[in-house]
Amino acid sequence: SQKIEQNSEALNIQEGKTATLTCNYTNYSPAYLQWYRQDPGRGPVFLLLIRENEKEKRKERLKVTFDTTLKQSLFHITASQPADSATYLCALDYWGSQGNLIFGKGTKLSVKP
Amino acid sequence: EAQVTQNPRYLITVTGKKLTVTCSQNMNHEYMSWYRQDPGLGLRQIYYSMNVEVTDKGDVPEGYKVSRKEKRNFPLILESPSPNQTSLYFCASSPIGEAKNIQYFGAGTRLSVL
Questions:
Q1: Which chain A residues in 82-101 lie under 8 Å from chain B, judged by CB atoms?
Q2: Looking at the predicted structure, is the pLDDT value of residue B99 above 80?
Q3: Are A63 and A5 in contact (CB under 8 A)?
Q4: Which helix (H) or strand (E) is A21 found in, with range?
Q5: pLDDT (tens digit per residue) in B64-75
Q6: CA angle B47-B36-A76, nearest 5°?
Q7: Are A50 and A57 in contact (CB under 8 A)?
Q8: Is B105 in CB contact (< 8 Å) with chain A?
Q9: Pairwise CA distance, residues B36 & B105, whole Å
Q10: pLDDT at residue A56, rounded to an integer
Q11: What are φ and ψ of residue B55, in 5° steps?
Q12: pLDDT at B52 exceeding the cut of 70
């Protein structure tokens, strides 16, 4: 069956370290891979996207990689801060999706001071 | 300000009492969608709409109805709510064909069905 998985439900790291979140997918032909941030009780907010033919994308302290051979995207937050604590969702936009995204269940990141 | 507006934000109701959750977007987006989010299950799509008068089922459509009479509005209707529809609901919109289908979410509606 088609699915998208975020390997960790929760990730705890120390302030200043790099957080690395993983997103794996199966049975899709991806067009783009998107990452969203969700704070408790709030709607997800778009952060970054990466195309299938891109290896890496950066935005300030955020970096996303996309390996279509491994069927995996990694999301990095460098120099993490307590304010980065949130749930991060990956979402796959695949060819023929008609606008629908397939969301992972999310990884809850906690950055301790 | 570009936004997706859901109302109400919180709702407590009783089994069987019809309710409507409204969703409106001011970005002229073609695509709109409803999700529910439950602990451990992530976001699950209920219905989506590609444009006015065009709607289709998502992964969990049972017990829900939608309509898309105007481009900006996409209400979610629960004709006879049941306790298993207690959840956090999100409406989202997206400009298909532009901006790579990035979805813009509303603030959410927390529904409790007693």
A1: 89, 91, 93, 97-101
A2: no
A3: no
A4: strand A19-26
A5: 999 999 999 999
A6: 110
A7: yes
A8: yes
A9: 12
A10: 95
A11: -130, 155
A12: yes
Is residue A32 within 8 Å of residue A51, measured between CB atoms?
yes
Residue A11's closest CA among A105, A90, A91, A85? A85
Task: Please state, for a pLDDT cut of 90, what percent of chain B lies above it.
Answer: 89
Q: Chain-wide mean pLDDT for chain A? A: 92
Q: Can you give the length of chain A in residues?
A: 113
Q: What radius of gyration do chain B's Cα atoms show? A: 13
The Cα A31–Cα A93 span in angstroms is: 6
Read off the amino acid at residue B73.
N
Q: What are phi and psi of A7, to 5 degrees?
A: -65, -35
Chain A residues whose CB is inside 8 A of the B31 CB are: 99
Q: Do B42 and A106 touch (CB under 8 A)?
A: yes
**CB nearest A99 (choices: B40, B43, B94):** B94
Q: How far apart are CA B57 and CA B72, in angstroms?
A: 19
